[in-house]
Amino acid sequence: MLVPLQLDERWSIDFVSGQRTDGRRFCILAVIDDCTRECLALIVDTSLSGMRVGRELDRLITERGRPTTIVSDNGREFTSNAILALICKPVGTGTPCDGNVASKFGDVSNACI
């Protein structure tokens, strides 16, 4: 996968999850601009449905414009009907080996605990 050379050319999205000391679980949706390495969004909640992810992506697209490509690690989180309807057609997929920048935010969950 080529490194993007322009702002908003490619975004990476990924989920990070963790558990608080009281046992409650939480998840974080991380959205990263792969060119600038800017964190566009960190959405934290106890549960993030496909519809919620779609709303958050729609909000970002309204604010910044639509990226050329959105990549993910093809995790089960991104197979819901709501996400598939949002994308409509495949615009790009990645794997953790492709350097998905969002997956590098794993340490963020430790900071939230």
From TrEMBL:
Species of origin: Mesorhizobium tianshanense
Annotated GO MF terms: nucleic acid binding
SUPFAM superfamilies per UniProt: Ribonuclease H-like
Protein name: Putative transposase
A GO biological-process term: DNA integration
Residues of the Integrase catalytic domain: 1-92
PANTHER family found in the cross-reference section: BLR2054 PROTEIN, LOW CALCIUM RESPONSE LOCUS PROTEIN T
InterPro entries: Integrase_cat-core, RNaseH-like_sf, RNaseH_sf
Superkingdom of the source species: Bacteria
